[in-house]
Amino acid sequence: MKEEDRLQERPPIEDFLRMDRIPHIWCPGCGIGTVVTSFAEALKKSELDLDKVAILSGIGCTGRVAGYVKLDSIHTTHGRALPVATGLKLANPELKVVVFSGDGDIAGIGGNHFIHAARRNMDILIICVNNFNYAMTGGQVAATTPIDANASTAPYGNFEYPFSLPYLAEASGATYVARWTALHLRRVTKSIQEALGKRGFSFIEVITPCVTLYARRNRLGDGLNLLKYYYEKSEIQHGADTRTLDISYQGKLIVGKFVDKEKPTFLDCMNEHLGKVLGDKYQPYGVYHDGD
Amino acid sequence: MKYFGDLKEKKGEIHIIKDRCKGCGFCVEYCPKDVLEMSEEFNIKGYHPPRIKNEDECLYCQLCETICPEFSIYVTLKKEEEKGEKGESRP
Ligand SMILES: Cc1ncc(C[n+]2csc(CCOP(=O)(O)OP(=O)(O)O)c2C)c(N)n1
Ligand code: SF4
Ligand code: SF4
Ligand code: SF4
Ligand SMILES: [Mg+2]
User: Does ipTM come in above 0.90?
Assistant: First the structure.
């Protein structure tokens, strides 16, 4: 078959993308696009009604995702994807609400929203692309930058203690916590699929190459070099104690599913509590049957 | 290669949208069957897209399709293989 004939069909992923916005802005070798494919694959496998799935992002390179994916989406302000997602979920509890954003957006400027959404066990899934820096704005130190890594605001290397995101998520109350790298294509898909099927606050960290800023400033090469690092230094440890997951500069990456438990969500608690206090006067809110 | 009964490997047909590619090399590096290679040609954006070296080896695992950050390569099942029992090569 000739090359021209083949192009008449289209990649299946195009059903999940707003093709008028493609090509995307991401750099050559940036891994965010790969994580988007894993996410689309999980959505497909989950067989959810896509009219009942909403995606939100904050600002950043990763924050562009909400604009590229063909779902109902909100591109919120920096750090505010979670409060908007909380509002959306409470206004329309039937929706499956997914936040897809960067480490800076979720754990830096949005850190307070993150811990409180987790504390309340909001029924939201977070996919957090951790590229160890504020990429979109020029590679500044983020809350996740490993000690000794170079960043534009740490020209002699970073000396601040970073957050370990799975530990933060679990300690704050998340009921599903996993960490993968962008290279764990099928594992990322499986994790997202699993979390989509759960109720409660789910958090999936995906360590992803930022070539133009993190890799370049640290002279780590290109996207392929970062994937090679993930391949060599990641170790799957399902159920690992989240206190043991610190990441050192170019050090070991412990990945896997660390937390998977059931706990009443914010709305469950609200309905239960108000039902108890108010009795028959109270109409339970947002209770759906069959696949809620 | 020997097959068990009628069980055959799936065969893929690879499609490359050259002008969308940014030449990262992920598909070439991670294809388990070494089916692809980078070309010297330039696409419209000035990157070198991959080209098919040996499509007969392609197992329809779709790894290239999943890893490509640009949504610029995908694989379909080779038509001839659609009948008969097939081995599941995709996890
Ligand atoms: C209130 C506010 N403060 C700062 C910024 C500038 N800003 C835009 S994106 C960004 C950091 C993004 O980092 P991250 O969330 O990790 O996303 P990445 O680009 O790394 O994917 C910052 C500081 C902003 N847009 N709004
Ligand atoms: S700056 Fe980094 S994170 Fe942003 S698109 Fe480029 S490689 Fe990706
Ligand atoms: S489908 Fe699998 S075997 Fe075929 S080219 Fe892609 S990665 Fe290689
Ligand atoms: S993975 Fe995609 S963008 Fe990268 S070289 Fe292959 S086709 Fe091009
Ligand atoms: Mg970042």
Answer: yes
Q: Whose CA is nearest to atom 2 of ligand 3?
A: B61
Which ligand is nearest to the Cα of residue B34, counting in written order?
Answer: 3
Question: Could you tell me if B20 lies within 8 Å of chain A, comparing CB atoms?
Answer: yes
Distance (Å) of CA A44 to CA A17, A204, B59, B88: 13, 18, 22, 19
Count of C-beta atoms within a 10 Å radius of residue A72: 16
Q: Which of A28, A38, A223 sits opposite B66 (nearest CB)?
A: A38
Q: A185-196 and A32-46 helices cross at what angle (nearest 10)?
A: 50
Q: CA end-to-end span of chain B, whole Å?
A: 21
Q: Which atom of ligand 4 is nearest to the CA of B22?
A: 3
The Cα–Cα gap between A143 and A141 comes to 7
Ligand 1 atom at minimal distance to the Cα of residue A210 = 20
Same domain, A201 and A289: no
B50 Cβ inside 6 Å of ligand 4: yes
- Residues A87, A228, single domain; the answer is yes
Find the CATH number of the domain harbouring A78: 3.40.50.970
Domain co-membership, A165 together with A273: no
pLDDT digits (tens, 9 = 90+) for A196-223: 999 999 999 999 999 999 999 999 999 9
| CB-closest option in B16, B25, B70 to A23 | B70
Nearest CA to ligand 1 atom 5: A78
CA distance A223 to A227: 6
Contact B13 A26 (CB under 8 A): no
pLDDT value at residue B78 = 87
The pLDDT tens digits for A243-289 are 999 999 999 999 999 999 999 999 999 999 999 999 999 999 998 65
Residues A72 and A174 in one domain: yes
Residue-wise pLDDT for A140-153, tens only, equals: 999 999 999 999 99
